[in-house]
Amino acid sequence: MSMQPPRIGGLPAGPRDAISDVAGVTVGHLTLAEGDVQTGVTVIRPHAQDPFRHKVPAAAAVINGFGKSVGLTQLAELGQLETPIALTNTFSVPAVAQAQIAQCVRANPETGRALPTVNPLVLECNDGYLNDIQRMAVTAAHYEAACACASADVAQGAVGAGRGMSSFQLKGGIGTASRRTGEGYTVGALVLANYGIQANLVWGGQPLGQRLAARQGAPAAATEKGSIIMLLATDAPLDARQLGRLALRAAAGLARTGSVYGHGSGDIAVAFSTAYTLPDLPDAPMPAVAMVHETRLDALFQAAADSVEQAIVHALWHAEPVMGRSGHHRQALRQLLNQ
Q: What stretch or stretches form a coiled coil here (predicted)?
């Protein structure tokens, strides 16, 4: 087995092979890794400006809705982001949502008074196998620290929200990748991978999971109970409806890795464009943007599917082994490939 991760598809990657290849996008992590607490928060900022004042167009695709996210209803209705996107564990969603509201109020003191309320956007996976999720260890200060350290250099694996996540009965976590189309547009993906039955794992088109499961002699998991959050950023000028179509193509990349979107799996994708911003006040002019023609979306769809699959590969590849709650342990895939 090659000790390099498989390269997905024929489209070129950006210079970082990361979601931050879309200019302006940054990512920050805060990782908690002590004993039974193996968790964290990850923040994705679409640009350096105040997202409440300078919203970006966005859309979501709920592939399987077994999840406890906050903010998806208004995102679907209005088609825009007005906070950074935050990722964390299931029981920490309320604390992070409150932190996002407080962050907006500090920057815009009339939020909820003379100004509209803000729609926090927090997405989650359940890291309770490795993390004592009942501790609800993630606080507003952790969210703020993740925002403060956001940069174009994106750490991957068992970091931030990915610290306690599992995939295919192995260590999962954060992964990222990007692809560029022939027309010069970039699509970047970031995933929080916490899903999959080991025997179903497809690794660059190869049935690696079957070989791993047979070699370890482990009992097969009966059901897929995990989740995955898939974020797509692009610099292509798309409206919210087109971004909904792009988000749905994340499912193609997910399926290639061996997921069947099981009953207990929360599989959610969010796509946003950085090509323009939308003002918060009605007296500000709306942007006049020529959108990509519908018949030219296929290259972006290909880039979305390939970058999501590559990001999942990277999440598994960069993960390190973690010992967590009650002595629970997850091996890293690279450990097994070295054996």
A: none
